[in-house]
Design a protein that fits this description.
The protein is an all-alpha fold and 288 residues long. The chain has 17 helices and no strands. Among the domains are: 110 residues, Up-down Bundle (V-type ATP synthase subunit C fold), CATH 1.20.1690; 90 residues, Up-down Bundle (V-type ATP synthase subunit C fold). The longest helix is centred in the C-terminal third of the chain and has 29 residues.
């Protein structure tokens, strides 16, 4: 396709997809429905089973599957740095699968149970989950990953895991490597797109760092220095110095008071980490 044809295709696809998006008013209305009506309106009622957690997980995977299918369509006309960036972003679902595999190996779960938690990924995400499922341990799984395009991520993760077999550290290492690669690819974009995309990624990194740092510090009791070691570079507001000031607080309430106004919009943040995460996600969606 020519460049003009590519752009026309993308605009058409995006227009079709955006027409199917639920606006804020619709989402707010859904949130007010009784549970039985919400199940019908959202499509959750189509997923059978007595275990609510399993049904919700299956529903989330189905929604994600739709998104991945749509992403495959958007990738078709793209080339160069833009395609590489979008493919890296899509590969976060491979990363989620890797994390699910790691958790399963640590918990010594049956392969069938681990497999049920994995996303079914489109062809351009070509990780062989069967090979990884049939490994006997986390180090063996990571060594298999070293033979894939995730060599850099797997090598760093394996080194840290062998030094200290800590699931928190392994999870953070995978995230650090993923976002580092994402930022590297964004920096290869044309100057007209680069700054805006890096700013968006920076906001995503800020949200990730804040939510997980608060969890590590106040839910799991890690020390500030340990939490900082797990943080991701590339944030828009929360560099390591700012994050350290937040983490040096003795309580969650005190930590929230130390958040920069540019991140909170001078609003009072909720004191439950799950609600903080939801608030930041809402802000990010409005920005995007």
């Amino acid at each position: 396709m020519s460049r003009l044809t590519d752009q026309a295709y993308l605009r058409t696809r995006l227009a079709i997809m955006s027409a199917n998006l639920m606006g804020k008013d619709r989402l707010d209305a859904l949130a007010e429905l009784p549970l039985d009506e919400l199940e019908t309106a959202s499509g959750l009622d189509a997923i059978s089973g007595s275990n609510q957690a399993a049904r919700l997980a299956a529903f989330e995977r189905a929604l994600t599957q739709t998104w991945l299918d749509e992403l495959s369509a958007l990738l078709r006309p793209l080339g160069g740095p833009a395609r590489r960036l979008l493919m890296q972003w899509a590969s976060r679902y491979e990363l989620l699968n890797i994390k699910a595999l790691v958790r399963g190996k640590i918990g010594q779960l049956p392969n069938e149970e681990i497999e049920r938690s994995l996303f079914r990924l489109p062809g351009f995400l070509s990780l062989n989950h069967d090979d990884l499922l049939n490994t006997d341990s986390v180090p063996e799984l990571l060594r298999h990953l070293q033979k894939t395009r995730y060599q850099r991520i797997a090598t760093q993760a394996l080194r840290r895991y062998e030094e200290r077999p800590d699931p928190f550290l392994l999870d953070a290492t995978l995230d650090q490597q993923f976002y580092g690669e994402l930022i590297d690819r964004a920096q290869q974009l044309a100057s007209t797109d680069r700054e805006e995309i890096l700013n968006l990624i920076g906001r995503i990194v800020d949200r990730h760092n804040l939510v997980w740092s608060l969890r590590y510090r106040f839910n799991y009791g890690l020390q500030p220095s340990e939490v900082l070691y797990l943080a991701i570079d590339g944030g828009r507001v929360l560099n390591r110095a700012v994050l350290q000031q937040i983490l040096n607080a003795d309580t969650l309430a005190e930590a929230l008071k130390r958040l920069p106004d540019s991140m909170t919009g001078k609003r009072q943040m909720p004191e439950q980490i799950t609600l903080i995460e939801a608030t930041l996600r809402s802000d990010l969606l409005l920005y995007a």
